[in-house]
Design a protein that fits this description.
Structural class: alpha/beta
Number of helices: 4
Number of strands: 7
Strand order of the largest sheet: 1-2-3-5
Low-confidence stretches: none
Mean pLDDT: 96
Length: 224
Amino acid sequence: MGFHTEQQDTSAPGWQRLLELVDEAASDGREEFRPLTELSAEERRQVVTLPPSIATLTAVKHLVLYGSNLVRIPPEIGAMSSLEEFTPYTSYRLHWFPYEITRCPKLTRSTVSTRALFGNYKLRPPFPRLQPFRDSVAELDPAHLEPRRWGATAVHSCSVCDLPIEQRGLHQVWISIRVATDVLPLLVNACSSECVNALPNGARDHIASPHQGGRVDQPASDWD
């Protein structure tokens, strides 16, 4: 099991239209945002992530990404301070989410296709093996990462303390915890072992502590 390797084509019409829709939603202060309904089928296929500008959607209470082609959600979702409900249902290529989603203080409802998730309790698919901890990113360009190796295309700040990664290190771990209605596998991009140690325990019936994926024991599946 590995990460999706696609990188977003920022010249694609679907991406350009999505940028416009985010700007419009931020300007008019709408509380529900369904961007994909305003894209053609071809444009939807061109979008594999959301833009960092979703951080400006501070009035949005419900984010709907039904049936998307997304393979990753950017950490900027954590800035959507009014978000109460998250609906990426039938987005079958979304296997994990950024730890920063836990920063949404009002998020209480979600509808996720859980059987597509790494480590889900029904099927227990394995987690991708993460890269070894780095106490320095001096030899790494965290603004331009290979998603095949790192999951993300860029890491700018620590998922836990929010300090700049460029000044610290990069310690990636997985943790499965309850977010709103569902237990989600979250990718943590921590700046230090101290931040990793500050993470909560895993959800009941999931791996109990942060881990790096690969050959790690999981509880038995719930598949009948």
